[in-house]
Amino acid sequence: MHVHVNAAESVDGKLSTHEREQVAISGPEDFDRMDALRAESAGVLVGVGTVLADDPSLTVKDAERRERRTNDGKAPNPARVVADSRARTPPDAEILDDSAATYVLASEAADEAEVAALSAAGATVITAGSSRVDLSAAFEQLEARGVDRLLVEGGGELIFSLFDAGLVDRLTVYVGSVVIGGRDAPTLADGEGFTDPETFAALSLTDVARFDDGVVLTYDVQKE
Ligand SMILES: NC(=O)C1=CN([C@@H]2O[C@H](COP(=O)(O)OP(=O)(O)OC[C@H]3O[C@@H](n4cnc5c(N)ncnc54)[C@H](OP(=O)(O)O)[C@@H]3O)[C@@H](O)[C@H]2O)C=CC1
Ligand SMILES: Nc1nc(O)c(N)c(N[C@@H]2O[C@H](COP(=O)(O)O)[C@@H](O)[C@H]2O)n1
In what order do the strands lie in the sheet with 79-83? Predict the structure, then answer.
């Protein structure tokens, strides 16, 4: 599985406000760059926290990009994937509309009725992990279904877990010219955090580019 994490943060590293409401940190040029990344992906992954906060659609917005995908023999939109251990995704969430296939990565702790409701709403539920989604195992099951290239759009809890598990290949971060602040506002990587510097995720900066009134930093992730 190739895993590319892309997110937009303020200069102080926040993904949104302490109220965890969606804010536009980047502008039209960066949203278009993100749309191109979606169009190149087999799947777009977010955590259930992002689904509950933002209710994103995770579709390709540009019609020409969708047409190019169709001409290449692909579905117009990549699959939508949500990491959701307890099947908390609302059955009327945007990611469950009929624009694309939707996978819910759940754990054995998910309530059977909630899983059934998501299946009835059109999702394919993949179970991996006892109390929380085992991301490596879930990715193997996604690959078996042809989803072999994931764009991860957040949020901070999920992104930390992916780095912690050594699953990230590439990171692009849009740094917007704004300070959001707030000790409880989500950051690019939340979770437990690393303590031993030996275990920090090590990155190689490969590009710096200006988009809108901010910069996009591109990194390859060093793997042992
Ligand atoms: N600026 C940007 O680019 C973006 C901003 N955002 C913002 O980020 C915020 C949401 O981020 P956040 O609250 O961190 O939520 P996330 O989207 O990271 O979702 C976190 C949840 O995912 C579930 N999950 C399942 N498996 C795992 C796993 N193995 N590791 C970690 N999490 C797992 C957990 O819930 P459970 O245990 O129930 O499964 C967890 O609470 C919102 O405010 C949103 O607006 C979001 C995306 C992009
Ligand atoms: N690149 C980027 N810049 C921002 O300023 C953002 N707030 C986000 N958020 C992500 O975009 C998703 C919205 O997707 P749809 O337009 O609904 O398809 C949102 O959920 C975040 O993943 N990204």
Answer: 124-127, 102-106, 79-83, 43-47, 149-154, 2-10, 170-176, 214-221, 203-211
For the chain, list residues with pLDDT below 70. Answer: none
Domain ranges of the chain: 37-154, 169-224
Q: Would you call 111 helix, strand, or coil by DSSP?
A: coil
ipTM of the complex: 0.98
Q: Any idea which fold 37-154 has?
A: Dihydrofolate Reductase, subunit A (3.40.430)
Instruction: Say what the pLDDT of residue 119 is.
Output: 98
Residues with CB under 6 A from ligand 2: 8, 22-26, 30, 34, 46, 50, 54, 56-59, 153-154, 174
DSSP code per residue over 153-219: EE-HHHHHHHHHTT---EEEEEEES-----TTS-BSS-SS---SGGGSPPEEEEEEEEETTEEEEEE
**CB-count burial class (<10 Å; 0-12, 13-18, 19+) for 144:** exposed
